Amino acid sequence: MYSRLGRTDSGFANLRDAGRLDIVYECVVASLFFSHGIRKNVVFHAVLNGPPRPPLHLIVDGVSLHDVRTDQHTWEQILKKVLSGKMHPGIMVDRLGFESVMKDLANRAPVYVLEERGEHVSRIDLADSAVFVLGDHVGLPKRAEGFALRYGKKVSLGRQPYLAASCITILNYLLDSKGKH
């Protein structure tokens, strides 16, 4: 996930006012959680590009993630903790930018860039392990989208724009129904 405004420190009162870290939280929950469990085969990446020191790469790994719930208050506390330099099981941060993260992930799995004008996802045989690239409430900057497309292709969930977390839920459903999760 590319977050244009997500704060890169813990100096915020709430996730919404922290450069829309509430969207990052919603995407983490949609990516990793299902009823009474965590998807152990999912790693969520977000590149935060907000103040004061962008970029910051947030990694949430389902294999080692624990001591979490799905409520916003819990994640506000967790994000404040990791953005202040402290540790939480299954969550790491580093200073990699979007391009470095993309290069690394593209070496591991096929890349699909979500875009309403892409090829409809129903016509694509999604790989067992895939990287899905999406933006926040504003969308991917053109430059970031162009860079990601060097490694993958545009895919669409349809012409209707959905919330980022809803896109993730739809993709998880599609992968689950094909037995790829």
Secondary structure blueprint with pairings:
Blueprint: E1 2-3, H1 21-32, E2 33-34, E3 37-38, E4 43-48, E5 56-61, H2 72-83, E6 91-94, H3 98-106, E7 111-120, E8 131-133, H4 142-149, E9 152-156, H5 164-177
Parallel strand pairs: 1-4, 7-8, 7-9
Antiparallel strand pairs: 2-3, 4-5, 5-6
Helix pairs in contact: 1-5
| Secondary-structure content class | alpha/beta
| Outline type | globular
Determine and state the CATH class.
Answer: Alpha Beta
By CATH's scheme, which homologous superfamily applies?
Answer: SPOUT methyltransferase, trefoil knot domain
Mean pLDDT: 96
Q: How far is the N terminus from the C terminus?
A: 20 Å
The proportion of residues in beta strands is 15-25%
Proper CATH architecture: 3-Layer(aba) Sandwich
Low confidence ranges: none
CATH topology: Alpha/beta knot
Oligomer: single chain
Total number of domains: 1
Number of helical elements: 5
Topology as H/E string?
A: EHEEEEHEHEEHEH
The helix fraction, in percent, is 25-40%
Number of strands: 9
Strand order of the largest sheet: 1-4-5-6
The major beta sheet can be summarized as: 4 strands, mixed
The radius of gyration is 15 Å
